[in-house]
DNA sequence: AGAAGGACCAGTGGTCCGTA
DNA sequence: AGAAGGACCAGTGGTCCGTA
């Protein structure tokens, strides 16, 4: 129902960055076995504490088939950054607008439904949330612009859009007017959600689950923490003003 | 409500087996660095395909503190095996009965409820199923006889007990009479569940979720597969006997 | 500086298989 | 042979941080 017309909202052309493999291939002067295995294996080193050394001993011919057909200087693409747009406004320049952001959540929902149908058909476990499996499926289906960190990052913004579209729209207009960046707008989305939670007994999980389009998203940790903190301080101040045991008003 | 009186159903005293650490300490003549690290690190070798070699390079003094205070020959305890008992029957000898088995599921439910209350209190994510976290909590609370492989192994038996206690009781009496072992009884529990699923549109997840005491358990993979296979062959035979497109009868 | 997302990591669901 | 459960492993939820 949120039609594919919205796809047009994404600006044509993507930002570019050199591809990882190419840089690795170009980065000459590696230091032996580990370097050679880096393309094949995951790098398990970064923040490792145990000072462990991993050595591959049958690395024979696994890395010889370069599937990308040699060093043709192609570039990895990265989505344009979001900017704060009003409802209905299309972002100009190398930017994406917030209607497009919210549209990505609808797309994920459609991918989830497809994954669910396949699972039901096969008699397999059926996910109720947007899981890693769904992100993998989306990628395989060609929606390479969908990824987990991005979707998780803005879930609460989408939640406000679902739960109080008027408030969400007003916030967008206000932040656009003030020339705020996306990060500031994103931060500002928390507060109205906490207010909504306050009105509904602080149960943010119940609020998500009661909304069909929101129920498929995990409640973001920070939103959960904010609701919890606010509930406690609200209870504390009410018990002070109430002058004794907590009363229901 | 399923009172702690049932705890008495577990035979006093447990089977014994020598403790792992002791055996490892006793097993002299290891072969160098990896052997020395085995107590500290997880053994990552078993079925490994990649022919990888893992070497620890700062193994300095991590393994020196033997917390068990030396080789006092204490024994690890293991629960008595289950035998097929009738409802109400207490197992004799070094055995446990099936009422006790089902009681363990009730205990897990109580541990889950405690974990849920703690989580709600702290404003953390609240589990709806018996997860690893719940098994850990049970162990910490002293219920060392509860463990994940055992509980998962018999979930479908408990499911039958919840969904059709009469049928479950009849099956127990029949298998006791015939002198069948627990494994045979366990296998036999699948079929009546598949029959129940057939009557309810084959949705075994919905059947579990509709029952408050069962909803907290993951549907066992094998039960899910049996329902799926049976649904498909039922659909095939009905479309044959129906002589064309599937009809609703 | 603000932002997108590859890649990591601790802890999960699932159950094998070494053990008695 | 039958059974209990430690311990493993692939893939998860969560998000950091190297990247541009």
Automatic annotation (TrEMBL), chains A, B:
GO terms for biological process: regulation of DNA-templated transcription. It comes from the Eukaryota. It is found in: Nucleus. One of its GO terms (cellular component) is nucleus. One of its GO terms (molecular function) is DNA binding. Residues 57-67 have a biased composition (Acidic residues). Keywords: Activator, Developmental protein, DNA-binding, Nucleus, Transcription, Transcription regulation. Residues 69-235 form the Floricaula/leafy DNA-binding C-terminal domain. Residues 13-77 are annotated as: Disordered. Probable transcription factor. Belongs to the FLO/LFY family. This is Floricaula/leafy-like transcription factor. It comes from Hevea brasiliensis. The chain holds residues 108 to 356 of 356 of the full protein.
